[in-house]
Amino acid sequence: MKINIMISADHINKEEVLGKTVVVIDVLRATSVITTAISNGCKEIIPVLEVEEALSLANKGECILGGERNALKIDGFNCSNSPLEYITDVVENKRLIITTSNGTKAIKRSEGAKHILIGAMINGKAVARRVLSLREDLVIVNAGTHGEFSIDDFICGGYIIDCILKQNLKVELSDIAKTARQIYSISPDLSFIKEAKHYNRIKELGLEEDLEYCLKKDIIDIVPEYVDGKIVKIDV
């Protein structure tokens, strides 16, 4: 198995992901939201790029709307991009339409991959197990922030790589994948993530509880997967 990393949604190479397993990471906060919602019983999640598309889909059936622009809740939406809002009472057996600044773009631009998995710190070990079970080369797609590199996603990718290597040493890492794992190994308590620009943007908004939640390791043991335009729980 070979593992590579793409540093933002804007850096996705379609030829590189074609036919491979992709893990999309937007740890602060879209993939943490998606993983939490699916874990709490959400029936399916539809990621879209534009607010107008989300509103249009919402008019065609019973669903809830979630997401953000510039880390803030979108007017008229039911939920923001806080994973703490996606509790069972809100999402169970519901269809969620979500649009975010970075995460949903990374998911949609990964289309063409054989499998598109949703990864975060909160389900890192489960993602590693799922990747190994698929036996395909892996591309980790960091959502980044507005097309730029993000420390938070990079370290999360490093954590997932570390989990993979602890289960299978016969893995070939690209230089950037080696770097991600090394950075994680230097800061396994995730303290270095506090240097991230996006981390501090969320902190400035008073969302410390979101940050604390998103940086918990392995509190969820499922891996959502994007299949035919929808994110669902795949039983394996």
From TrEMBL:
The keyword Hydrolase applies. It is an enzyme of class 3 (hydrolase). It catalyses: (2R)-O-phospho-3-sulfolactate + H2O = (2R)-3-sulfolactate + phosphate. It comes from the Bacteria. Its cofactor is Mg(2+). Keywords: Hydrolase, Magnesium. Coiled coil: none annotated. The keyword Transport does not apply. Its EC number is 3.1.3.71. Pfam families: 2-ph_phosp. Belongs to the ComB family. This is Probable 2-phosphosulfolactate phosphatase. The gene is comB.
